[in-house]
Fold:
Amino acid sequence: MEDKSREDLARGVRSFTVGTTISRLLGLVREQVFASLFGSSRSTDAFNAAFRIPNLLRDLFAETSLSAAFVPVLTEQKTKSKKHENLLASNIFNTLFLVVGLLTILGMIFCRPVASLVAMGFSRIPEKLALTSSLTFITFPFLLFVSLAAWAMSYHNTEGSFFVPSVAPAFFNVFSIAVPLALFGWYTSRGGDPIYGAAIGVTFGGLMQFLIQVPGVFRQGYRYHFYLNWRDPQFKKVMALFVPVAIGLAGSRINVFVNTILVSYQAERSMSWLNYAYRIMHLPLGLFGIAVGAVALPRFSRLVIENKSEEVQIAFKDSLKMVFFLTVPSSILIAFFSYPVTRLIYQHGRFTAADTLAVSQALILYTLGIPFISALRNVASVFYAHQDSKAPMYASFISIGVNLILNLSLMKPIGFLAFPLYASLASVVNILVLMRWLPRKIGRLDLRSIYLYFLNLALLSGFAGAAGLLGYKVVLKYLGHSFLAVLGNTIFWGSISLIIFYFGGRLAGIKEVEAFTRRFLKR
Structure:
């Protein structure tokens, strides 16, 4: 049973990762197109500030918050009957449509004061603030569409389906690429700012991210009910979980909101540099960290409902080790190869070498937090499976306080680089607090083996990354700095680093290196 459960996790993560790989690669193409068309400029700062507003709210109504509250209760209803499951799903869908729809309309009506509040520093340049306001109006409907997409993802995950929801963002990216490309010439020929095409693209992309999941939801057995009952006991149970998660995320979103204000006072292009770096960081985070957390939540929920506490411990340790196996080497390798990776992805068109240097520096600091952010989702899933969303909320508040204090203290001496550095450090604080409280849910854990395992992975990955980067720099002197030379050299030495990591792990006796590789690649 234990082996089967482990294979279920590996199979689910593999399925999620395949879909997410497609989505994230298209996301990088989107960023390449964006960088080539617009570079780092006043317009891109305005777009990033405007799009950040619905993105801040998305985290409250979609993805983590919704799945954390919805999946455990929906899993419970599924054990009763399909009708119970579908009634709850319809109740949540109708509530989202009503509440988030109203919030979207209000956001569009009051786009000017919202933009003035979020990008306060832009008030020094009236044209920039006006553009941010217009782009906010266009992008706000994205919030509704992505919230409904998160509802569909939660239903799929409850049914054990992970590929469709993981590949759905690919359709968001396709429209985010196609629309600005199609409209660029139209706007420029009429003297308009082509950045409007990017705003239209993300809005239509959000709609497609939802619609592409709908047929699969019905294939899973969903049947819509015109049912809206906020007094329903199961709805109240979802809300009892949702509200603490939302409050905890609201705290982190307030943190991002304050950071956005602070960044708006930094040198022009700072917001764009951070956004470009964040997008690269999200590749390994989405491929591996989010994948394990998404697959683990319904698995933990099922074991908790069945009252299998010992199996919860086993499943938790297994999933946490898998998270570290996937994210520690990938994040460290990206940190070592941050400059060539940034150059290959972005340095085209209006994106300059100075932009590449700034983005690569921010990327190094962001990647330090990838294993901890990924593991945090996994640890929090144990609490959510026990229908406890307050502990993650309190831990989030602690990390938020640390982040804000550190950002304010170092913003002046190191500028925009303070924000990715302390985003990573705050994730470390967050997971340490939750790990301290975890035994209250699943009993006493001997985590020394986990800490030692993490340390060994980090040392081995650091050695592999350093060896690969050294080889890259030596060969680059002979190949030159053309795009093809940098591309071939990066792929070759990145692959060599992974080979060093794999065989080094086997020689060092880290048995999980071979075991997880086989499980992850096994069909």
Remarks:
- Residues 2-38 form the longest helix (37 residues).
- DSSP finds 22 helices and no strands in the chain.
